Amino acid sequence: MDQEQLAKFTVSTRHFNRILIAIDDDDFISSRFAFDYACTVAKIYSIPLAIASVLETGDLNVFQSLDPDVLAERRNEIAKDLNIYVEKAKEAGILDVVPMIGEGKPGRVIVEQMIPQFKPDLVVVGSETHPGARKTIGSVAAHITRFSPCSVIVVRDPASAPAPKPEN
């Protein structure tokens, strides 16, 4: 961009129309802050919010994955948790809340199935941070960020942010 183009540039307002929040049923901390952010934006814009959770079939051993009772129990647990998130979103003032459940590899299921079905223009994901670990995003957040056809924001636990360095 040259100086003339930059001088003519004006800031325009960015408005989202549909948000999908990816919830990790096994990681409440990273999901919580992402969920708070998604609910805040959905409420401010008065737009639909999809709350997506994926049963990670890769986390099950061979015997569990072949046992219909184990799968049914895990599906039921995810559905109950998802319903709690839906109720929390409604309590926060979001009028249009859509629960979504999938099975498989979370990043792939969200990008290949849930995003095309709900058609969000913003996906919100959390990212787990371990104390003392480098600040990298998890594999699911990375996959969604890399392959999503729409904007993606990664929200971290504010407590995991590095402390500001004192000025001399």
UniProtKB/TrEMBL annotation:
Residues 16-156 form the UspA domain. CDD domains: USP-like. Pfam families: Usp. Belongs to the universal stress protein A family. This is Usp1 protein. It comes from Schleiferilactobacillus perolens DSM 12744.
